[in-house]
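Aim 2 progress. For tRNA threonylcarbamoyladenosine biosynthesis protein TsaE, the working sequence is reproduced below.
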Amino acid sequence: MVTSIHLPDAVATEAFGASLAPHVRPGDVITLSGDLGAGKTSIARGLLAALGLAGEAPSPSFAIVQPYDPPEVRLPVLHVDLYRIDDPDELEELGLDEALSDALLLVEWPERAPDRWPDALALTLTAAPDGGRILTADVPASWKPRWPT
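Predicted structure tokens for this construct:
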């Protein structure tokens, strides 16, 4: 199922991320695609805040993987930014597959690791003519009963 949602501003983008929080569970992968500044990290920040994170979540651009664990958040989360990954083989060193059994993965720039997470909730952000964003969601079968909109 593919669906599109108009997000008029950054507040709406974070609110969309927050709307995912009641539906996520360990083992889920949410990929976030879009140009620089499209709102990928805003969705992640909204989701993390709704999972209980106090304070602002930093972009994991330089760390590549930013972990969050209970009690800081409701469930373990790995916020991953693959922008600086040049070769998909580098992902083996990050231990993401091992962590997936008990954590939620939020993956920015998933196109750097094509076909790595075929069952992910794939979210893509593009610029809207009014300055907002168009979010296109490719909702896999495992998410259909949980899809919040």
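The first helix runs from residue 10 to 20. This observation will guide construct design in the next reporting period.
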